[in-house]
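Suppose a colleague, Dr. K., hands you the sequence of a protein chain of 148 amino acids and asks what its three-dimensional shape might be. Before reaching for any lab equipment, you can write down a predicted structure in C-alpha coordinate form. Begin with the sequence itself:
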Amino acid sequence: MKKFNYQEFYERVGKENGWDFSQVRVSSEGVAWNFYDEVKKQGQSDSVLLDIGTGGGENIINIASSFLFVVGIDLARGMIETARSNIQQSNVPNISCFEMNADQLQFPNEFFDVVSCCHAPFSAKEISRVVNKGGLFLTQQVVKKMDN
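The predicted structure, expressed as C-alpha coordinates, is then:
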Protein backbone atom coordinates (compact mmCIF):
# COMPACT_ATOMS: atom_id res chain seq x y z
CA MET A 1 0.00 0.00 0.00
CA LYS A 2 1.35 3.40 -0.99
CA LYS A 3 2.12 5.78 1.90
CA PHE A 4 0.09 9.00 1.84
CA ASN A 5 2.17 12.12 1.21
CA TYR A 6 0.84 14.56 3.83
CA GLN A 7 3.27 17.35 2.94
CA GLU A 8 2.09 17.38 -0.68
CA PHE A 9 -1.54 17.25 0.44
CA TYR A 10 -1.17 20.24 2.81
CA GLU A 11 0.68 22.23 0.16
CA ARG A 12 -2.13 21.66 -2.33
CA VAL A 13 -4.96 22.35 0.13
CA GLY A 14 -3.14 25.38 1.50
CA LYS A 15 -3.05 27.01 -1.90
CA GLU A 16 -6.68 26.11 -2.62
CA ASN A 17 -8.36 27.22 0.58
CA GLY A 18 -5.90 27.53 3.47
CA TRP A 19 -7.78 24.93 5.47
CA ASP A 20 -10.83 27.23 5.63
CA PHE A 21 -13.93 25.21 6.34
CA SER A 22 -16.21 28.19 7.06
CA GLN A 23 -18.34 27.41 4.00
CA VAL A 24 -18.98 23.83 5.07
CA ARG A 25 -22.45 23.38 6.51
CA VAL A 26 -22.17 21.61 9.83
CA SER A 27 -24.27 20.95 12.86
CA SER A 28 -22.76 20.38 16.29
CA GLU A 29 -24.64 19.02 19.24
CA GLY A 30 -23.46 19.18 22.81
CA VAL A 31 -20.39 21.29 21.99
CA ALA A 32 -20.07 23.86 24.73
CA TRP A 33 -16.88 25.59 23.61
CA ASN A 34 -14.69 26.58 20.68
CA PHE A 35 -10.90 26.18 20.82
CA TYR A 36 -10.05 29.63 19.47
CA ASP A 37 -12.61 31.28 21.77
CA GLU A 38 -10.62 29.77 24.64
CA VAL A 39 -7.35 31.05 23.16
CA LYS A 40 -8.89 34.50 22.75
CA LYS A 41 -9.83 34.57 26.45
CA GLN A 42 -6.13 34.32 27.30
CA GLY A 43 -5.23 37.43 25.33
CA GLN A 44 -4.29 40.70 26.96
CA SER A 45 -3.22 44.00 25.47
CA ASP A 46 0.44 43.11 26.04
CA SER A 47 0.28 39.36 25.18
CA VAL A 48 2.13 37.74 22.29
CA LEU A 49 0.58 34.60 20.79
CA LEU A 50 2.18 31.82 18.75
CA ASP A 51 -0.28 29.69 16.74
CA ILE A 52 1.22 26.41 15.53
CA GLY A 53 -0.40 24.93 12.42
CA THR A 54 -2.14 28.18 11.57
CA GLY A 55 -3.34 27.00 8.14
CA GLY A 56 -4.83 29.88 6.18
CA GLY A 57 -4.81 32.17 9.21
CA GLU A 58 -8.59 32.50 9.47
CA ASN A 59 -8.68 31.74 13.19
CA ILE A 60 -5.88 34.09 14.20
CA ILE A 61 -7.39 36.90 12.15
CA ASN A 62 -10.57 36.53 14.21
CA ILE A 63 -8.77 36.70 17.58
CA ALA A 64 -5.86 39.06 16.85
CA SER A 65 -7.55 42.05 18.47
CA SER A 66 -7.17 40.31 21.86
CA PHE A 67 -3.37 40.25 21.59
CA LEU A 68 -0.55 42.73 21.15
CA PHE A 69 0.99 40.57 18.44
CA VAL A 70 0.18 37.20 16.84
CA VAL A 71 2.56 34.87 15.01
CA GLY A 72 1.22 31.99 12.96
CA ILE A 73 3.41 29.17 11.69
CA ASP A 74 2.73 26.25 9.42
CA LEU A 75 4.91 23.62 7.81
CA ALA A 76 3.21 23.99 4.43
CA ARG A 77 4.27 26.89 2.21
CA GLY A 78 0.84 26.85 0.53
CA MET A 79 -0.87 27.40 3.87
CA ILE A 80 1.39 30.34 4.70
CA GLU A 81 0.86 31.89 1.28
CA THR A 82 -2.91 31.71 1.82
CA ALA A 83 -2.57 33.02 5.39
CA ARG A 84 -0.55 36.02 4.24
CA SER A 85 -3.11 36.78 1.54
CA ASN A 86 -5.99 36.48 4.03
CA ILE A 87 -4.20 38.71 6.53
CA GLN A 88 -3.50 41.34 3.89
CA GLN A 89 -7.16 41.32 2.81
CA SER A 90 -8.33 41.57 6.43
CA ASN A 91 -6.20 44.65 7.19
CA VAL A 92 -5.36 43.22 10.62
CA PRO A 93 -1.96 44.81 11.35
CA ASN A 94 -0.66 42.76 14.28
CA ILE A 95 -0.15 39.35 12.62
CA SER A 96 2.86 37.76 10.93
CA CYS A 97 3.08 34.26 9.46
CA PHE A 98 6.06 32.07 8.71
CA GLU A 99 6.73 28.71 7.13
CA MET A 100 8.32 26.81 10.00
CA ASN A 101 8.68 23.36 11.49
CA ALA A 102 7.23 23.19 15.03
CA ASP A 103 10.10 20.87 15.99
CA GLN A 104 12.60 23.69 15.36
CA LEU A 105 11.00 26.97 16.42
CA GLN A 106 13.09 29.91 15.32
CA PHE A 107 12.15 32.24 18.18
CA PRO A 108 13.99 33.42 21.30
CA ASN A 109 13.55 31.66 24.63
CA GLU A 110 10.49 32.74 26.63
CA PHE A 111 9.22 34.98 23.82
CA PHE A 112 5.50 34.06 23.86
CA ASP A 113 2.83 34.53 26.51
CA VAL A 114 0.43 32.08 24.89
CA VAL A 115 1.02 29.20 22.46
CA SER A 116 -1.88 27.52 20.69
CA CYS A 117 -1.91 24.41 18.54
CA CYS A 118 -5.10 23.03 17.02
CA HIS A 119 -4.85 19.70 15.21
CA ALA A 120 -1.18 20.07 14.34
CA PRO A 121 2.01 18.32 15.43
CA PHE A 122 4.13 20.10 18.03
CA SER A 123 7.24 19.64 20.12
CA ALA A 124 6.64 19.96 23.87
CA LYS A 125 10.35 20.68 24.32
CA GLU A 126 10.26 23.59 21.85
CA ILE A 127 7.05 25.00 23.32
CA SER A 128 8.47 24.91 26.83
CA ARG A 129 11.49 26.80 25.51
CA VAL A 130 9.59 29.62 23.76
CA VAL A 131 6.73 30.18 26.22
CA ASN A 132 7.56 32.52 29.06
CA LYS A 133 7.39 31.61 32.75
CA GLY A 134 3.74 31.77 33.70
CA GLY A 135 2.77 31.48 30.03
CA LEU A 136 0.15 29.12 28.70
CA PHE A 137 0.00 26.35 26.09
CA LEU A 138 -3.42 25.38 24.73
CA THR A 139 -3.90 22.45 22.36
CA GLN A 140 -6.74 20.52 20.82
CA GLN A 141 -5.73 17.32 19.07
CA VAL A 142 -7.36 14.44 17.24
CA VAL A 143 -5.85 11.13 16.36
CA LYS A 144 -6.91 8.59 13.83
CA LYS A 145 -7.45 5.07 15.03
CA MET A 146 -4.45 2.93 14.35
CA ASP A 147 -5.06 -0.75 13.60
CA ASN A 148 -2.57 -3.10 15.18
